[in-house]
Sequence to fold (421 residues):
Amino acid sequence: MEFAAIKGFKDILPGDVGHWQRLEAAARRLFEAFGFQEIKTPLLERTELFSRGIGRDTDIVSKEMYSFPDSKGRGLTLRPEATASVVRAYIQQRLYQEHSIQKLFTIGPMFRHERPQKGRFRQFHQINAELFGDPGPKSDADIILMAVYLLEAVGLKGLTLNINSLGCPQCRSPFRKDLGAYLADRSSLLCTDCRRRSEINPLRTFDCKVEACGMVVFDAPSILDYICNTCRDHFCSLQDYLESTGTPFILNHRLVRGLDYYTKTAFEIQTEHLGAQNAVAGGGRYDGLVKLLGGPDDPAIGFAVGIERVVALMEEEGRAEIRVPDLFIAVLGEAAEKACFVWAAELRKSGVRVEMQYRAKGLKAQMKKADRIRAKRVLIVGDDEIGSGKGILRHMETKAQEIIDLNKTVTDIKRVLERNE
Ligand code: HAM
Fold:
């Protein structure tokens, strides 16, 4: 029997990893510049954390979670997103006592049992940033700028930043009522799911991908006509901050996001290049979540970038840089093989990328191998060279050769290699 990866779970091969590393390095650099620190939370949490945090009527909780009981019958779930887990850690570890503002980021896999398609997987990876303790629009702007700058840093173009305000529980309540009534009048036009959603949580109909439902919600009431003065001022200030940094955005009053915890600001960065899965990053404010999960009444805002989707766009922009060996050591003879084993180990220890065959064949085969793996230079060492203490260093691109002293220190050799770049 040949094993294959589970549907929707994929291997990230060495040839693909270059873009991942570039994206993660850019995130670490940028997020640290914004004062964020990395946190790692478990992949497995109590099911209740997500059902309460994300909302029982959301697609994620009602259909997509990988949940199973532990040996004592308690429900466990592979995390479908990171926000609820980071909030749990924030409360459990009392991180709010350390600093009044906590800025955290986390990178790792998430699990959702969705139908796999282009840009949608069952195990996928996110880069998340969460900011706790500030209720104002300036932190909204910081969070949105971080997402935009990260995507710019890895060279993505043609993205659109959509923003909306979902109001607070006070102003959302009349909106929900009016939206519910609007949908009830048109319920025969809605899919079965949306008919149910329109009664329990009408905002969820905005997420529906069924065309007929999309047409119904197109003319639905706009939340922006309902938000109270406080929410409106917050939203207008956010727009001012974005404008002051020259960050273009569009107002999208149908952007509600697929998770129930959002209040006030919601945003999504979208692309036209990934078909239906057009959201590259999304986030928003979730002022009630920390309290809902048993912590203090602390405001918060955050976002997540979908790594696979960003990497797919990076691939369209160009191939990842392949790391090639700095040096291939071609050996002839037993004494040369032994001496070069030690020598390669020392060079590798000091960070030089050195390749050498485990079972060295003839010189021609070794040169072929060096060529295939695109080694920048080859050092040719035979037993004679060991005797004379000299080796031949060949620059593979220019074909220039020089004699180098094998008794030089690693630092000297590194200098020679750098000179040859
Ligand atoms: P989300 O919109 O569910 O938000 O996911 C964020 C991003 O993860 C999406 O924009 C997309 O790029 C990627 N993503 C989601 N599902 C999949 C999938 N099945 N396959 C591939 N990529 C996917 C959240 O998860 C929130 N926790 C974001 C947040 C953080 N809000 C506040 N803080």
